[in-house]
Amino acid sequence: MGVDYAENADTVNAFTHRLWPQGNSSFSEAVMSFAEKVSELDFMTRRMIMESFGLDESYIKKHLKSTKCLVRLMKYQGVEETEEELGMEPHTDRNMLTILCQNDVKDGIEVKTKDDKHWIKANPSQDSSFIVLGGAMLHVLLNGRVLTGVHRVMRMGTNTRFSAGLFSVPKTEDLIYAPEEMVDAEHPRLYKPVNFEAYFQYTTEGTGRRDLCAPRTYCGL
Ligand SMILES: O=C(O)CCC(=O)C(=O)O
Ligand SMILES: [Fe+2]
């Protein structure tokens, strides 16, 4: 399940109320506290990435204000000892940045190698580690300099895996495009300006649903 605008107490409480009409303040508080703390990590990570490409402070501040956070809570039932089943099909995330954490069930999320040949288990190095994935909009914004890894979730082992993710999602109607600083002779512009909602529709209901190279197909130059 997903809680949109998880940084906002009113929207979180409204979501909680739909599941527990009598209220469930510990659920609301857990979602808001997760959103607040993991958002800090999201902001810090995006800031570091952007600074490393020489984008200036005013651009970064404006960018960080242009996103909202979606918190998703996922459950993958365990399987029989010798079995292995797909829990979430291979995809790339559409948003800016995704930060995932999970319970102590180690195996689950897998990332495809760039040569498209192998799946690598992306096990967190320790319990307190997060998995960070670049989304399609960050890829477009940074003119392809941060990749959007193809990933999937496998169900293996008998234990149930839970994961929680914070997805920073554009909330702006403004078109998303790479600033001039990201474009030069070595890095020609790769994408046309893109409207996130339209891209979302295209990859949800349109022909882009299973397209693992959707940015290129949808807005590639
Ligand atoms: O559950 C996970 O670890 C991954 C979930 C995921 O990839 C997604 O929600 O986009
Ligand atoms: Fe994902």
From TrEMBL:
Q: Which PANTHER family match?
A: 2-OXOGLUTARATE (2OG) AND FE(II)-DEPENDENT OXYGENASE SUPERFAMILY PROTEIN-RELATED (PTHR47990)
Q: Which GO terms describe its molecular function?
A: metal ion binding; oxidoreductase activity
Q: What are the residue boundaries of the Fe2OG dioxygenase domain, all occurrences included?
A: 65-170
Against InterPro entries, the record matches this protein to:
IPNS-like_FE2OG_OXY (IPR044861), IPNS-like_sf (IPR027443), Iron_ascorbate_oxido_reductase (IPR050231), Oxoglu/Fe-dep_dioxygenase_dom (IPR005123)
Keywords from the named record: Iron, Metal-binding, Oxidoreductase
Q: What is the lineage of its organism?
A: Eukaryota, Viridiplantae, Streptophyta, Embryophyta, Tracheophyta
Q: Name one Pfam family in it.
A: 2OG-FeII_Oxy
> Protein name, please?
Fe2OG dioxygenase domain-containing protein
Which family does the record claim for this protein? Answer: Belongs to the iron/ascorbate-dependent oxidoreductase family.
